[in-house]
Amino acid sequence: MSNDFLNVFLNEMKTNVNGFIAVSVTEIETGLSFGNITVDSAFDPELAAAYNLEVVKAKLNAVKALNLNQDIEDILITLSNQIHIIDISPNKKFMIYLAADATKANLGMTRAVLRKHKADLEKNLA
User: Taking the CB of the first residue and of the last residue of the chain, which one, N or C, has fewer CB atoms within 10 A?
Assistant: First the structure.
């Protein structure tokens, strides 16, 4: 994948998501981090994505075990002052983990920004 494209994607998230805290792009199968960025030095997006990867794997297994024949679009975790969105690529190869301040973020707009860039990101991942 082009590092330039990834850097553009990460900075688009930082610029266009109100209340942005951090974002990470992670390969689901291996847990390899393609890249991440944060505005809070105390928040480690790579570590957060690694823990949340277990949530993704568990949910993918549950969907399969239940024969739901559905795709997971995203997983929302609402904390007292943050929202965490885990957006899974259509090909289930990678996830985008995004954290934002709940008092500033607009959930609908945040999801729209992710959706807008997810297809391009999928095309550029090797």
Answer: C
Say which residues have a Cβ less than 8 Å from residue 126's Cβ, sequence separation at least 6. Answer: 1
> Is residue 69 exposed (0-12), middle (13-18) or buried (19+ Cβ within 10 Å)?
exposed
Is the predicted pLDDT of residue 121 greater than 90, yes or no?
Answer: no
Using DSSP's 3-state secondary structure scheme, residue 99 falls into: strand
The two structure tokens encoding residue 117:
């860039």
Q: How far is residue 52's CA from residue 89's CA, in Å, rounded to a whole number?
A: 15
What pLDDT was estimated at residue 1? 46
Instruction: Answer for the pair 23, 96: CB distance below 8 angstroms, yes or no.
Output: yes
Tokens of 40: 């809070």
Take residue 75 and report the two structure tokens written for it: 């997983």
